[in-house]
Amino acid sequence: MTPRELDAAGIHEPALRAAYTACRRLNARHGKTYFLATRLLPVEKRPAVHALYGFARWADDIVDDLDSAATPDERAHALHRLQEILDDGLRGGACTEPVIRSLVHTAAVHDIDHRHFADFMTSMRSDLTVTGYASYQELGRYMYGSAAVIGLQMLPVLGTEGPQDEAAPYAAALGVAFQLTNFLRDVGEDLDRGRLYLPADLLAAHGVDRDYLEWSRATGRSDVRITRAMQAAAAHNRGVYRDALPGLALLAPRSRPCVRTAFILYSRILDAIEDDGYAVLHRRAVVPRLNRAAVALDGLVRALATRAGAGAGHTSPARTATSAAPAPETLARPVREEVA
Questions:
Q1: Is 339 within 8 Å of 206 (Cβ atoms)?
Q2: Which of 11, 24, 205, 259 meets the CB 3.0–4.6 Å disulfide criterion with 1?
């Protein structure tokens, strides 16, 4: 964390400053897209976002790290220990662990509902035992804790033009949209972990099952049925992005460029998957660096313009028009007809 960001957020105690700095380093190393978008936030908001993401990253690494030799029992123990440290910190206990210390401070400053952290941990624990999902409805229950609550945690930090309750469903939907994109991009790696986040009924509708995906992963071979299943998953994902889109206009103006940029960057991952022929079982689709840079530059211009307007005493009307949100065609390609 830079001294400027910490000073702007009113974080002066040395140990707490060091804790937030550790979260920022974690995010810069592991969450390139997310970190890039966060740079567009007003400086005083960035430490809290790094704390929230740092905690989520830590828990996720306990469950998912392919480079770790930890056994399932060891992962379960580590997750249980994390839960104990979190619960103690949220109850006001002394905490020396940097990520939890930052999270507890952020939750207190921004009045974040502690239930969101409990729901998140519930989903993380399920990853230790649940290896697949029958339908999007079943997957949705998992994603409420693993993704939707991330959007709900972020909302008090980002700020809204009106009541948070109005923006909350869109924030939750955007968290789900981001995670669905990750699921599709990482389906091969997740199979290596023994898990599959593409619903069985979606696969079956295209003549595919888990065994066939594992065969494709192992042999490097594919066929049109797998491609069509991946196309259908991408189409569903784009629909969730459309559901989340109106929420951009409900955010505080100074936060919109950041979230808009994340929205576009994650949508472009779907574009990259499409451009690569939906070969997600065999390689990870990557958004070209120049493409990411162009999106980030546009976000920076918007962020600077918003801050200049705020400095001049300009205030946006509270939800009087949706023009503050970018048009759908500027954010993601139109959803193509789903292949039956």
A1: yes
A2: 24
Q: Token pair for residue 283?
A: 């390689």
Rounded Cα–Cα distance for residues 268 and 287 (Å): 7
Q: What is the pLDDT of residues 48-102, one digit of tens each?
A: 999 999 999 999 889 987 677 788 899 999 999 999 999 999 999 888 899 999 9
Average pLDDT over residues 185-211: 97
Reference 28, options 12, 18, 39, 17; nearest CA is: 39
The Cα 158–Cα 110 span in angstroms is 10
Q: What 3-state DSSP class applies to 37?
A: helix
Cβ atoms < 10 Å from Cβ of 2: 12
Predicted TM-score (pTM) of this structure: 0.87
**152-to-115, 169, 270, 305, 315 alpha-carbon distances in Å:** 10, 8, 24, 27, 24
Q: Tens of pLDDT along 10-35?
A: 999 999 999 999 999 888 877 667 77
User: Are residues 265 and 292 in contact, defined by beta-carbon separation less than 8 angstroms?
Assistant: yes
